[in-house]
Amino acid sequence: MKTARIILLAPLALFRLISILTISAVVALVGWLWLKLFGFSRRLQNWSMQTWGKSILFICGIKTDKNEKPQNGHFILMPNHRSYIDIFIVAAYNPAAFVGKAELKKWPLLKIGAKLTNSIFVSRAELQSLVSTMHKIKASVNKDIPVALFPEGTTYKGPLTKPFKNGSFKVAADTGIPIIPMAIHFKDEKDAWIDDDTFVGHFFRQMSKPLIHVSVRYGKPLVNSDYKILQKETREQINAMLEDIISRNG
């Protein structure tokens, strides 16, 4: 009853949710036809991610302030994680293959989307899956398709980052693939989607606003065969960029 009331009182958010679902379905359909006719390519991957991400940023009134993005595909992008909005931002400006939980393969649109975007699903409980993931990440980057993953493992309000998981840094250290740290900061801290807040409740509250302001910063590439050093330096860079954004925004 409460959820229904929220939806009825938030027509802009309802319009945006319907638009997101429509955009996702259209991109999936066009991409699937492209895949069947011409096979997978970097062009298809790039088109799918950017069309989906930029369309959603526009529809949802998400305005970004960012510095220059990396110019090639040979890296692993590691952003801090505040909200589901982060995924739209990464897709729009850095059409990367996401690394996600194996359970997401059960979602019909995500299953098709993974094929279009070269995204990787991993079961963290299975060692073999982790080894397979490392090979898939390396193969993707070798095809100039960057990989994006959230080292915190879950969303976090901030203002800085929570401790990072080890696995992704072990992959980067073992493969020698550069890490690009990425900082994401929302001007309105309520835009962060955390803890037990439901997606529907959060979406209809925050997406009822005309605009959402986000600052994005890319750090310097990091390479090291010691995953602990990589982990430390990546977190330090992201935290420093977040602190700079916060100080500039007052």
TrEMBL record:
Q: CDD domains under this entry?
A: LPLAT_AGPAT-like
Cellular component GO terms held in the UniProt record: membrane
Keyword list (alphabetical) reads: Acyltransferase, Lipid metabolism, Membrane, Transferase, Transmembrane, Transmembrane helix
Q: What residue stretches are annotated with the Phospholipid/glycerol acyltransferase domain? A: 75-187
Does Secreted show up as a keyword for this record? no
> Single Gene Ontology BP term?
lipid metabolic process
Which residue ranges run through the membrane? 6-35
Q: Which SUPFAM superfamilies match?
A: Glycerol-3-phosphate (1)-acyltransferase
Q: Which InterPro entries match?
A: Plipid/glycerol_acylTrfase
Specify whether Protein transport is a keyword of the entry: no
Its chief place of residence is membrane
Q: Where in the cell is it found?
A: Membrane
Q: Which GO terms describe its molecular function?
A: acyltransferase activity
The record, for Pfam families, names:
Acyltransferase (PF01553)
Q: What is this protein called?
A: 1-acyl-sn-glycerol-3-phosphate acyltransferase
Species name: Mariniphaga sediminis
